[in-house]
Amino acid sequence: MKTLAIETIKRNFPNQWLLIEVAETKDGAPSKGVVLKTSNRREEIVEEIGRNKGKKLYFFFSGITAPPHTAFAL
Amino acid sequence: MRVSIPFNQRVFRDFRLFVVPALIENQGRSLYLPMIIDSGASYLTVRPDVFDQLGIAPVREAPLVTASERAVAPLDQVDKVTVGSRCFAVNVEIISIPFPEDLPAEGLLGASFLRHFLVSMDYDKGKLELTTR
After folding, report:
1. Nearest residue of chain A to residue B22 (CA atoms)
2. By CB distance 3.0 to 4.6 Å, which of B14, B34, B98, B105 could disulfide with A68?
3. pLDDT tens digit string along B75-86?
4. ipTM metric
5. Largest alpha-carbon pair distance within chain A?
């Protein structure tokens, strides 16, 4: 598997849930990594987290989940 | 020591939320998640499925009041949480609640983490800083 910049991974897998093994960080944020799994179904990626114990992982969605200017009140 | 924290610029532009990658470490698991800096949240908060995958066994339930409901939430602690290159806290209390799918993050960085720092959020300059005590 190839190590890629996180920004490159986001461009290569748009609007996907991603599980990355982190290879490098910059200012404490993941900057490079290896793609372990991608899916448009969040639960498929979450299941993989527990199967990769011992690795430094990054789990995120590569797109934006809500229309711009959506209001959030949590 | 004051540390500038990188955050997701697009989410900030679209929603005025500071979302940062936070490293959560617990029982041999190390997971970066995009988290909202939320001084209105009492605890570090994630969704139930991620809570389970981090190997967290809740020790008790905490009464929960959100903007829309009253409930209870499982509560435990994780070994360590790190934001940026040098800002970390150990034995951080964490709860789980089922967020909507369209939340642009995986959870909230609430007071159980933020209380260890002085937090500065400059919305005009788009700058987030944590100062260690």
Report:
1. A29
2. B14
3. 999 999 999 989
4. 0.95
5. 40
